[in-house]
Amino acid sequence: MQFSTATFALLGLAVTASAANEKLCFPAPGQKNNVPQSITDLDDQVKVDWATKLCSQINFSTIDAQSVTTDVADGVDAPEDGKTYGLNLVTVAVPDEQSCVSYAAQTLTADICPSGGAFIDLDSAQEEWFTIVALD
C-alpha cells in the first residue's frame, strides 16, 4: 500500500509540475529538523558561500553523481550541540560551475529550504542536492 501511495504521489508531482524546475526541501513537512536553529538561521550568503566553494571542486565534464562536503575549517559551530556544520553537495549532470552556484542560490535561502534541499531540472537529467550536515 505504501508503494502505491508513493507512486501516486510521485506521479502527481510529475504531472503538476508547471515549470522546468522543481525544488524539494529537507526535512519534509512534518519531519523533525535535526539541524540546530542557529545553523538554519545563518545568513543565506554563508550557505551560498559554502556551495560556491564546493561547486568549484566538481568535475563538470562528467554526468556521474559527485559528492563534496565542506571542510571542517570552513564550518560553523552550533552552540546548541557543540557540533560544526557545513554543506554536503551532490550533483548529477550539472553543466557548469555557474549553474551549480545558481541552483544553490535558488534553493538554500531561508524562505525556501533553510536546512537543505534539492534543485531538479525536469527537462533534463540535472540534479543538485544540498544537505546541511554535522562535520564532526
From TrEMBL:
Residues 1-19 form the signal peptide. It comes from the Eukaryota. It comes from Trichoderma harzianum. This is Ecp2 effector protein domain-containing protein. Keywords: Signal.
